[in-house]
C-alpha cells in the first residue's frame, strides 16, 4: 500500500495509525488530515499543538450542554463504579427503567413505550420495523413501504438509506440495491398537499408509515418548514390509515427552541426516534418511543406478535446514566434562555453575509444558524480557513452552518460568527462539496 498521502505531520499516534483508520464520509486519498484533538472543555476543542477551537457543531449536534459537563461526567463515573453494562435480555437496571419513564413524561401525548438502541440509524430501523409489524399484527397485508421526503436524512444503514433524499450525494450510488420507497415533496402549500393526498390515495395501501424530520431536515441541507406541515402530515396519515414517524434525532432536546420540535406544532407522531443529544454528547444511545396504540398492537398471547429485536448493548447502563443526567439539566430549565441567547447571537452575527457573493439564504431557528450558497462549497478548504479563525466549522453540501452547544459563551459565539463573516467575505467558498 502506498501511504504517501496519509498523515506525515502531527502526533506519533496519528501518523502511525492513519493508514489503519477508515475515516467517515471521506475520500482519504485527497482529504486533508483530520485535526488531532487531545481534550475538550466547555465549548472548545483542544488540539495536540495546544490550539483551541470553538466548536460550532457540538460534535455533530450531540454536546448540547457543552463538553465535560460535571453533572454528566459525575453520573457516568458513579455508574461506572457500580455497573457499566449488563445484557438487557431478561435483566433490568434502574438507569434504563428510570430513563424510559422520564422520556415518557417529557414526550407529549402517549409516546410512552421506549425501545433502546445505540445509534440513530438503528433506532430508525427499529421504528420502521415496528411500523411494518404494527400492520402485520393486525392482519393488514401489503403495507411494506414507507413514504418519506425530498431533503430528508434518516441514517446510513441499508434500510435508512432508502428513506433519505434519493438524489442526495451520500447514498445515490446504491439506488436499485434496496427496495424503493415513495419519496414525496413535503406538503408546504396547497399544491404539494394535494399531491401528497393523491399519492396516498393511490398507494396508501402499500405504505406502512410516513417518516419525516419535524421542522428541520438536518443533514439533507438544514431545510426549515413550518409547524403547519406537521399538522398536515398528521391529518393525511390518519386519513389514509398509515402511521406517522417523527425522526427527532437532530431536532430533539431543545435544538429548535422547544424540547421536541413536534411541540411547536402540537402534533404527536405514532413513533419518535431520539439520539444525538440524548446523552449530552457523551455516550452512544438512541431510542424509538412508540405510542400506546402502536405498543398495544404487539401486546398479545401470540409469541409471534412480539418485536424480535435486541441490540447487544441495548439500554447500556453508562449511556442511560448519562442521559438521565442530561435530562436533569434540561429539567433545571436554563437551556431555554440559552437557546434564545444563542439564537439571537447567530441571527445577528450571520445576517451581514446575506449580501455576500453566492449566498442565497441566511436562516436561524433555535440554536441552528445556516448560510446557504447557490452551489456546493469546498468543505476541506473551508474547514482550514475557519480553523485559522479559531473555529471548528464543517460545512455540508451547499451550507455553512452552526449548531453550537447551548452553553457556548457570548465571546465564543462571536468567534464562530466572525469566522464565517471573515471567510465568506474573502470569497472562494465554492467547490465540489468534497471532503
Ligand atoms: C444523525 C441522524 C441520524 C442517524 O444517526 P446515527 O447515530 O448517525 O446513526 C438519523 N436521523 C437524523 C435526523 C439524524 O440527524
In short:
With about 425 residues, the chain is an alpha/beta fold.
Please describe what this structure looks like.
This protein is an alpha/beta fold and 435 residues long. 35% of the residues lie in helices and 17% in strands. It has a seven-stranded mixed β-sheet with strand order 4-12-11-10-7-5-6, sandwiched between helices. The chain starts with 11 loop residues before the first helix and ends in a 9-residue tail after the last helix. The model has no long low-confidence stretch (mean pLDDT 95).
Structural key phrases:
435 residues, alpha/beta, seven-stranded mixed beta sheet, four-stranded mixed beta sheet, 17% strand, transferase, aminotransferase, cytoplasm, biotin biosynthesis
User: Helical region count?
Assistant: 13
Rounded to an integer in angstroms, the radius of gyration calculated over CA atoms is: 22 Å
Oligomeric assembly:
single chain
Q: Which band does the percent of strand residues land in?
A: 15-25%
Amino acid at each position: 500500500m502506498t501511504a504517501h498521502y496519509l498523515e506525515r505531520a502531527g502526533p506519533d499516534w496519528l501518523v502511525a495509525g492513519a493508514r489503519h483508520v477508515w475515516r467517515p464520509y471521506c475520500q482519504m486519498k485527497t482529504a486533508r488530515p483530520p485535526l488531532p484533538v487531545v481534550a475538550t472543555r466547555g465549548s472548545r476543542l483542544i488540539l495536540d499543538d495546544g490550539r483551541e477551537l470553538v466548536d460550532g457543531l457540538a460534535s455533530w449536534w450531540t454536546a448540547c450542554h457543552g463538553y465535560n459537563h460535571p453533572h454528566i461526567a459525575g453520573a457516568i463515573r458513579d455508574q461506572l463504579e457500580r455497573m457499566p453494562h449488563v445484557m438487557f435480555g431478561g435483566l433490568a437496571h434502574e438507569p434504563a427503567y428510570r430513563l424510559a419513564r422520564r422520556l415518557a413524561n417529557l414526550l407529549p401525548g402517549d409516546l410512552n413505550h421506549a425501545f433502546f438502541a445505540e445509534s440513530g440509524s438503528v433506532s430508525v430501523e427499529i421504528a420502521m420495523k415496528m411500523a411494518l409489524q404494527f400492520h402485520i399484527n393486525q392482519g393488514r397485508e401489503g403495507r411494506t413501504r414507507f413514504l418519506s421526503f425530498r431533503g430528508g436524512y434518516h441514517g446510513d444503514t441499508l434500510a435508512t438509506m432508502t428513506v433519505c433524499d434519493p438524489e442526495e450525494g451520500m447514498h445515490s450510488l446504491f439506488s436499485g440495491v434496496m427496495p424503493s420507497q415513495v419519496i414525496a415533496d413535503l406538503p408546504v402549500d396547497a399544491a404539494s398537499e394535494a399531491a401528497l393526498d393523491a399519492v396516498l390515495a393511490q398507494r396508501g395501501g402499500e405504505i406502512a408509515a410516513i417518516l419525516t424530520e419535524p421542522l428541520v431536515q438536518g443533514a439533507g441541507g438544514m431545510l426549515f418548514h413550518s409547524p403547519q406541515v406537521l399538522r398536515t402530515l398528521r391529518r393525511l396519515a390518519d386519513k389514509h390509515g398509515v402511521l406517522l414517524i417523527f425522526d427527532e434525532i437532530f431536532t430533539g432536546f431543545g435544538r429548535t427552541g422547544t424540547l421536541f420540535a413536534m411541540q411547536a406544532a402540537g402534533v404527536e407522531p405514532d413513533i419518535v426516534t431520539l439520539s444525538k443529544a440524548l446523552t449530552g454528547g457523551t455516550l452512544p444511545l438512541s431510542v424509538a418511543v412508540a405510542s400506546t396504540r402502536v405498543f398495544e398492537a404487539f401486546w398479545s398471547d401470540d409469541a409471534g406478535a412480539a418485536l424480535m429485536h435486541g441490540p447487544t448493548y441495548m439500554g447500556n447502563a453508562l449511556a442511560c446514566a448519562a442521559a438521565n443526567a442530561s435530562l436533569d439539566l434540561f429539567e433545571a430549565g436554563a437551556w431555554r434562555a440559552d437557546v434564545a441567547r444563542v439564537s439571537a447571537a447567530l441571527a445577528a452575527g450571520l445576517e451581514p453575509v446575506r449580501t455576500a457573493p453566492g449566498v442565497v439564504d441566511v436562516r436561524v431557528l433555535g440554536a441552528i444558524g445556516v448560510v446557504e450558497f447557490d452551489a456546493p462549497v469546498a468543505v476541506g478548504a473551508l474547514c482550514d480557513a475557519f480553523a485559522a479563525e479559531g473555529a471548528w466549522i464543517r460545512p455540508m453540501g451547499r451550507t455553512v452552518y452552526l449548531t453550537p452547544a447551548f452553553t457556548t459563551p457570548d465571546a465564543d459565539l462571536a468567534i464562530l460568527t466572525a469566522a464565517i463573516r471573515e471567510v465568506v467575505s474573502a470569497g472562494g467558498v465554492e467547490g465540489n462539496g468534497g471532503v
